[in-house]
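Homework help board

Subject: predicted structure for assignment chain

Our instructor gave us this sequence and asked us to write out the predicted structure in token form, then describe one feature. I got the tokens but I'm not sure how to describe them. Can anyone check?
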Amino acid sequence: MNQPSNSVFEIEVFFDGGCPLCRREIAMLRRRDRHKRIRFTDIDSKAFATHDVGKTQDELMAQMHGRLPSGEWVCGVEVFRRLYSAIGFGLLVMPTRLPGVSHLLDWGYAIFARNRHRITGRCTDQTCSIDRR
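My token output:
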């Protein structure tokens, strides 16, 4: 469920509500978001319309996306940094910005994002087909 569009937030997170790991992470974030700094948008919901955000379903499903109040988009690990900072875990986020750590996290997340359907047992011909580019 989305929060009202006029509420103040630090980041809107676009998450795959059909992904068990994603749902678990989002549930934890919701519990800890006591100041309502995060707007949660489930891109797997039948009520979600991609034309409202200007990105395709494939783009949004390819990796985690976040949108800042300015309209700027952030993707991948940076979304998690912003989410964890919003719930007060800024000190834990700081080390993830270190050059070696940052690159390792980006690499690891890219692998997870490409394989999350397989990892979570949700493969279909469309989600787990071999990309032969």
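Reply (TA_rk): Your tokens look well-formed. For the description, you could write something like this. The chain has one domain: 11-119. That's the kind of observation they're looking for.
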